[in-house]
Specification:
With 319 residues, the chain is of the alpha/beta class. It has helices at 3-25, 42-58, 74-79, 99-102, 137-146, 161-173, 185-193, 207-211, 258-272, 275-282, 293-313; strands spanning 31-35, 62-66, 88-92, 113-122, 124-129, 151-155, 177-181, 199-203, 215-220, 246-253. It has 2 domains: 29-121 and 246-313, Bordetella uptake gene, domain 1 (D-Maltodextrin-Binding Protein, domain 2, 3-Layer(aba) Sandwich), CATH 3.40.190; 124-220, D-Maltodextrin-Binding Protein, domain 2. It is globular. The termini are far apart.
């Protein structure tokens, strides 16, 4: 073998050894996982369970930081100014893929995030207080038609999936609804129980209030009825050709070394398989929803294109 080939082989071997060593040593300090919604809601509770499991696997704490607001996009924005070393991670809700169509930003959700893995997805529905005169979806639609612009619904933020889905429903049925945004499920449920709004579109963070007899579910938005709420019809059953689920996962800053991404992927995937995480998800009729780094990147690109069409259909595009 020529001297030049020997030098190249030695260099490649050293590089591979360095990558392997870095992957094995990472992490050497706590990891920050920024999530898009406040403490006490379904995202917070389930992601803390996942983080606890990953902490044990990684041998370092994964510390959850709540950063609500801006339609769930603040964690992804945090990645744009974070070092690409694997020590800052972010939840990536669907709203991230709508952001460039509604707000002027200087980064690209597809090119400027390293997608680690998808972990689960929200199940959604519409709820009213148990003593509301709007006992069924038929009552809800009838009241809205008789009182244009007066039927209020809250969501976990402007341009979130619950908000846009309700706008799409209203458009299909010719309704004028009044949207009231909140920062997260906990605030939203407090407002609904306090009589500040008439209804709430949310992920199943409302489950405990339904089970305790304080709220009624008018409909759910998946392909099938939810096990926790078997009496609540889906949008499809109500004649609306809509299915809304909202996968979300974990991203890292652009340029995070592939071996570090793989280490994170493997740890969080293993944590997804733990009973403690599955139990936390089950509280909200959620299930593990795994996508690999490559699969999640492909999903992100496809969703980015699909969300553009939705935002334009609703007339909400601003740029």
């Amino acid at each position: 073998m020529q001297r030049r080939q020997l030098v190249q082989l030695a260099a490649a071997t050293l590089a591979a050894s360095a990558l392997s060593s870095r992957a094995q040593s990472f992490p050497v300090r706590p990891i920050r996982l920024v999530i898009a919604f406040p403490a006490g809601g379904p995202t917070d509770i389930t992601m803390r369970s996942l983080a606890d499991g990953a902490s044990r696997i990684l041998g370092q704490s994964v510390i959850v930081e709540n950063k609500p607001g801006a339609g769930g996009t603040l964690p992804a924005q945090t990645l744009q100014t974070s070092t690409a070393d694997g020590y800052t991670l972010a939840q990536i809700p669907l709203g991230v893929f709508r952001l460039p169509y509604t707000t002027k930003i200087n980064w690209d959700p597809i090119k400027d995030i390293s997608y680690v893995l998808n972990v689960t997805g929200y199940a959604f529905g519409l709820v009213v207080p148990i003593d509301s005169p709007l006992k069924t979806w038929t009552h809800y639609v009838g009241w809205a038609k008789a009182n244009p612009g007066k039927l209020t619904f809250g969501s976990t933020g402007t341009l979130t999936s619950p908000h846009l889905t309700m706008e799409l429903i209203a458009q299909k049925l010719g309704l004028q609804l009044l949207h009231v945004p909140y920062k997260g499920s906990a605030d939203l449920m407090t407002a609904l129980m306090g009589g500040h709004i008439m209804s709430a579109a949310d992920s199943t963070g409302f489950a405990t209030l339904v089970e305790s007899g304080k709220l009624r579910v008018l409909n759910t938005w998946g392909a099938q009825r939810l096990a926790k709420f078997p009496d609540a019809p889906t949008l499809m059953e109500l004649g609306l050709d809509l299915v809304q689920n909202s996968p979300f996962g974990i991203g890292a800053p652009k340029g995070t070394p592939p071996d570090v991404v793989k280490r994170l992927h493997d740890a969080f995937k293993q944590a997804m398989e733990q009973d403690s995480y599955k139990t936390a998800l089950a509280r909200y009729d959620m299930v593990p929803m795994y996508m690999s780094s490559a699969g999640y990147s492909k999903f992100a690109a496809e969703t980015f294109a699909r969300e553009k069409a939705l935002v334009e259909k609703l007339g909400l595009a601003k740029i």
